[in-house]
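Notes from hallway chat w/ T.B., transcribed later so I don't forget. T.B. wanted the structure written out for a chain they're using in a teaching module, and asked if we could keep both sequence and structure tokens in one place. Agreed to drop them here.
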Amino acid sequence: MSDWNTLHFFDDKYFYANIATDLSNAGNLLKKYFKSDLWKHILFDNNNSYARIKAMLDFCQHLDKDFKRHQELSLILNRKKQPNEEYSKFRHQLNEDEKEFVLKNTYAFADLNDTLPLLLFSECASFNPHLILGRRIFSGAVDAKPKSVSEQIISQIMHAETGCVYSYGGEGVINWITNEELQLLWLDKDNLFAKNPESEDYFQDFLTFTAIAIKNNWGFISVTNVREELLKKAKNPFFETDLDLESLGVKNIINY
């Protein structure tokens, strides 16, 4: 089955002030949601909640300041081959270290991967409307000048940071982009372009989506293979995006 990726509006300031702070401390917000009935559907069960919540909170203590990369996993994946080290041995050790990390933390980040999307879309992200990314739709339609600010920022839409575990199992959060980064993207948008004439409509829809986010002081969050029917139930009444998509004339920004 192909991956299905989508891009959503995201209040990064609220996230860092409330969600990241909560997950870095007592986890009161996490406890509230983890024990709810809706979470039972996400996790299939939410028993043994004390131990599972503690494991997630302990795991979050080792995330970096952006709350994206796990410090231990980043060290493993970013390790450089030593001058006298055989490449095959270097790769073998890296793979073994990564496997050990995964085994040691499997339950914590599996629960976090399942929990985080619903937590975010309940508090600081809007499921609808969203921009279709598809498996290769975005990367096949939008491009940027090499080594430009635009290239660096749009690359985050479809790619997780090295050391990130949020979509480690093939579903969940891919990445997020702050409003500040989107403003930098807009200032550098002359370095953005459609890959070919057939992509022009999609490219313009992406620019429209970006302009709306900037106007409302939002960022973006990209997700993969999420359970749309459950995330729709997590609709945040304080984060309404009442857009008239028909009047905007967009084809790739949709309501599910």
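Follow-up for T.B.: The chain has a mean pLDDT of 88. Might be a good example for the class.
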